[in-house]
Design brief:
about 250 residues; alpha+beta; Arc Repressor Mutant, subunit A; Beta-Lactamase; 2 domains; six-stranded antiparallel sheet; three-stranded antiparallel sheet; 9 strands; about 50% helix
């Protein structure tokens, strides 16, 4: 059986070679040193260095004329590592949460313009909502997104709301920023946020934000319930269990 042909993109390879070289060397390097080590023409390298420096993936020191890995590179690395760490830490907590409530649960990481499910446990019921890892959700239509928004510092939340486009996911999706603000005030007051068929028809969800030691939200734990089972008694059980799960995960992460 023949192997599939792999097509490479020279500019992408050069970017990766550059980042790998600086990571491997562990020190800043000049334009001339980088060009010689990577066998890249200086004119082409200048464009790559300019783009990467502008995006923060490289840092340029004018005095020495050298380039090093920049804050954007380390932020990207840190976000990826934290996502993996919190996913692993959340799994046993989600298993207990689903065992307590009988409903599907997940942990969703805050990605600035959305939340992304990084771990999940499915309900044992035949009728259930599948917690597919990697799914991303709009902030205004999901319980996890609204829980994070309610927990953000006021100035960051206002910046988000001032530029938000309320895309309609379902007929129930919130239609106005004024209504979204009311939901966020309730979430801040009660410690949980809701989505009543706003992301998926027939699914009710409740979520609570998970915070760092400094109070900043890194994501949210949620429980998703088919609307036909979403009784007030079950919701009360889910809310108590969510608060316990949140406290356990915050302890583990700290």
């Amino acid at each position: 059986m023949s192997r599939p042909k792999i097509t490479t993109v020279k500019s992408a390879d050069r970017v990766l070679d550059l980042l790998e070289l600086l990571s491997r060397k562990g020190k800043a390097m000049s334009h001339t040193e980088l060009a010689a080590a990577l066998a890249i023409p200086k004119s082409s390298l200048s464009q790559l260095l300019g783009n990467l420096t502008a995006r923060g993936y490289l840092a340029f020191t004018p005095g020495s004329g050298t380039y090093a890995l920049g804050p954007g590179f380390f932020a990207l690395l840190r976000r990826g590592r934290d996502g993996v760490d919190v996913a692993a830490a959340s799994e046993p907590i989600l298993e207990r949460l689903t065992a307590t409530t009988g409903e599907s649960s997940s942990f969703n990481v805050y990605r600035k313009d959305c939340v992304e499910r990084v771990s999940g446990v499915d309900s044992p019921h035949v009728l259930t909502y599948r917690m597919t890892v990697g799914t991303r959700f709009m902030m205004h239509s999901s319980s996890a997104g609204k829980a994070v928004l309610a927990a953000l510092p006021p100035e960051e939340r206002e910046r988000f709301l001032s530029g938000i486009r309320l895309e309609r996911r379902t007929e129930a999706t919130v239609r106005t920023v004024a209504e979204l603000r009311r939901q966020l005030l309730r979430a801040a007051r009660e410690g949980v946020a809701y989505s009543e068929g706003e992301h998926m028809p027939g699914v009710s969800a409740v979520a609570t934000a998970v915070r760092r030691a400094d109070g900043y939200p890194i994501g949210a734990i949620n429980v998703a319930i088919p609307s036909v089972r979403a009784t007030p008694a079950l919701r009360a059980i889910c809310i108590r269990a969510l608060h316990e799960a949140r406290d356990a995960l915050e302890r583990d992460l700290s």
